[in-house]
Design a protein that fits this description.
Length: 328
């Protein structure tokens, strides 16, 4: 009887972190289990090496999983090693961090999570790179009030997510403009948490909710008119695909990680960190609510609807299985 091939997914964050790496690891494990024996671990080896019959290591994040990647390459140099570049490693670490660079060199395949990702790699490594667009289940598009514009921002409070742009935008908006901002994310940086509290105290139209369960966050995305994604650095944001799969259009900073998901011709970008430009877009979307054709808000929704099929679970599973089948 043929033994089912075994895959270990190493992720630097498990369920308690409730972040993008964990969501990716959990979803990929589910997608691969119909074809392989799969387990998720924070490190490799996670069992005595002699009894470990793993056939392929799939490691998320080149720097944060570097120890597991190096251990696998030393113990099993001829067995497949796949490294998925999930965010800060692609757009920061591989430029200067020797451990991240070594992870890229050791990998037999590299995975990036959006279409602009391969261009961030050294040209010599692009041949072993594959794009796997992440996915989310589709949710019903809800009818929205025209009494106000409900905006949701989702991202833990840390510098890479650039929440300062949201704080500044909230202060540029007046309460009577009818634009309400809900900000969801755990207080990973105490200084940014203080800034969120100060913004909430000064701006009744802004509310920071702290961290919420994933299901509750998705419901708020579903009910919002807009998702705003202000990051300075992204590998491929879950919240963008979750918005698209809920019929909620997006305003996003013009960085590669966002462009790789929303497309080069998308109309909802603003310069990273430019709160005034973001406010202009928010006001244009608010004005569109009173127009018969929906104005800018409707135009962004139409563009997002065209992109949404790229983030269907079946498309992600097919792309992911293709990478595994190349090596196993």
């Amino acid at each position: 009887m043929t033994r089912t091939s075994s895959i270990c997914i190493v992720t630097p964050a498990l369920a308690d972190a409730n972040n993008g790496n964990w969501q990716t690891a959990r979803r990929w494990a589910r997608m691969l289990r119909d074809h392989y024996a799969v387990r998720v671990s924070k490190v490799w080896p996670d069992t005595p090496t002699a009894s470990d019959r793993t056939d392929l290591l799939l490691a998320l994040h080149a720097r944060r999983s570097a120890d597991s990647i190096a251990a696998w390459a030393q113990a099993r140099p001829h067995q497949p090693l796949v490294v998925a570049l999930t965010g800060t490693d692609l757009y920061r670490d591989i430029a200067s961090d020797a451990r991240a660079q070594r992870s890229l060199a050791l990998a037999h395949r590299l995975i990036v999570l959006q279409d602009q990702g391969p261009q961030a790699l050294p040209e010599a490594l692009r041949a072993k790179c594959r794009v796997v667009l992440q996915s989310s289940t589709r949710r019903q598009t809800l009818a929205k009030t025209v009494a106000h514009l409900r905006v949701v921002v989702v991202g833990h409070l840390r510098d890479e997510k650039w929440p300062q742009t949201i704080f500044e935008a909230a202060r540029l908006l007046a309460l009577d403009e009818g634009i309400r901002i809900d900000h969801i994310g755990q207080p990973l940086d105490p200084l940014l948490a203080d800034a969120a509290r100060q913004t909430q105290a000064a701006c009744p139209h802004y509310r920071w909710w702290g961290g919420l369960p994933h299901g509750a966050t998705r419901s708020r995305i579903q009910r919002a008119h807009l998702l705003v994604h202000p990051s300075r650095m992204e590998g491929g944001a879950h919240v963008i695909m979750e918005a698209l799969q809920s019929g909620t259009p997006v305003l996003a900073s013009h960085i590669d990680g966002n462009v790789g998901m929303l497309g080069t011709g998308y109309g909802g970008y603003y310069a990273p960190g430019d709160a005034a430009a973001l406010v202009s877009l928010l006001r244009a979307c608010r004005a569109g609510q009173s127009r018969p054709d929906g104005g800018m808000l409707a135009a962004l929704q139409a563009q997002c609807s065209l992109r949404a099929p790229l983030f269907e679970p079946q498309a992600e599973q097919t792309a992911l299985l293709s990478v595994m089948q190349e090596l196993l």
